[in-house]
Structures are given as C-alpha cells and as structure tokens.
Amino acid sequence: MREGHEGTGPGAITPDGCAVELYSRLPMGEEPDIVTAAVPAGARILELGCGVGRMTHPLLERGFTITAVDESAEMLDRVRGARTVCGPIEDLDLRETFDAVMLASFLVHAGDEEVRRGMLRTCARHVTQDGCVLIQREGESYHTDLPRERVHPSGFTLRILSSEPIGDGVNSVRAEYVFPDATWTQTFRARPMGEEEFEEALAEAGLGVDRYLTEDRVWVRAVKR
Asked: pLDDT category, 1, cuts 50, 70, 90?
C-alpha cells in the first residue's frame, strides 16, 4: 500500500486504496465523449491508470486502439479487448509513442511530487511529436465545502467526508461509497494545484496547455513544447 493510502470494503484493494469491486460497479460519465472529441478518429491511445477499464471499454467501442496501464493486476484482470501493461505509471518506458496519452482520475494531483513528475515525464516520453496528452484535474472546489455528498441516479451515494492538510501542500482525503448492499471507503493523499501551478508542472515535463476541454477546466489537452 502506498504511504497515506488505505481502502476498506469487500474484495481486493489496490496500492492506492481503490477497491476493485467498487470501480467495477461505478458507471462511466461523459469522459469518453470528451476524449473522442479531442483526438483523431482511430487514434492509438496510451491510457495510464486504466483501473478496471471503465473508460477503456467505451473508447474501444468508438474504434480507438488502447494500451491500458495500471499497477494493479486485479484491476487489469477486468479489462477486455486492450493490450494491458502492469506496473507503476511513473516508471513506465514502453519505448514507443502514441497519438494520445491519457492521465485521468486526478492522478496528476499525486501527493508525492516525485511521483507526479514521473507521471508527467511518462506522458511526454510516450506521446508523438504532434500528438496530445489528455489530463483530468480536480475541480476548483474539490477540497472545500466538506463534507458533501452526491446521490447517483443508479442508486449509490458518494460522500467526500474530509480533506485535511498534512503538510507540504498535501491533503489527506477520505471518501465513502455507499451501495444498497456494500460500503467502501478510500483514503488517499492529494496535492491541490491551481492552474498556474499545474501549468508549471506541465512545463517542467516539456508539455504545455493546448486548450481546456471543458467549461470547468477539469479536462485539459496538452502538447509537447
């Protein structure tokens, strides 16, 4: 288990505190449509932190070729139809490049700055010179107005219970997912970053913002500089 990360609930728990069974149940939102609109049809995509394939599978259905990476073998066991690679994102070197590299699930906010730097270097190393990197950031109010909860139409409740500073700009976040038949919790470390700090982190890896893809500026299309 990564330091400061913990998960509870039925089934296997990954090193960052994610429950495999939980993520197999979570529905996919509009993210595949955002990605589809930002990359060329039929693109080769490197998906970093794919989990159980919640985004992998709808992207495959849209005609993309996916290489799916995750550090959890239990997560990758749920992925179908994609080439899979098991290992930490920050250490990945496939010695090939892709039309698009995707870093979703707020992974760019890793509490450990060296892990974040490694992840962004991995993105830059694997994207073609004229390709793009798609990154999902935290929303502006992610760490404020807590606790808060959202009841999903499919019937489960997500609660962000707390986000407590633990030093060096890092927060410890605790979330709870309540289904009619099971409850999971996840505790993880996240580093809040405003746009300026985020863009500085990109620049350090040789990347820069091409454009923000969503009105809330959560999804970003970056390119090599």
From this structure: confident
Please count the CA atoms within 13 angstroms of the CA of 83 that sit on its side-chain side.
9
Contacts of 215 (CB under 8 A, 6+ apart): none
Which amino acid, one-letter code, is at 133?
A: V
CATH code of the domain occupying 24-139+194-224: 3.40.50.150
- 100 neighbors 62 (Cβ within 8 angstroms): no
Tell me how many degrees the CA angle 88-92-96 measures, rounded to the nearest 5. 150
Q: Which tens digits make up the pLDDT trace of 142-163?
A: 999 899 999 999 899 999 999 9
Name 25's Cβ contacts closer than 8 Å, sequence gap at least 6: 156, 179
pTM (predicted TM-score): 0.96
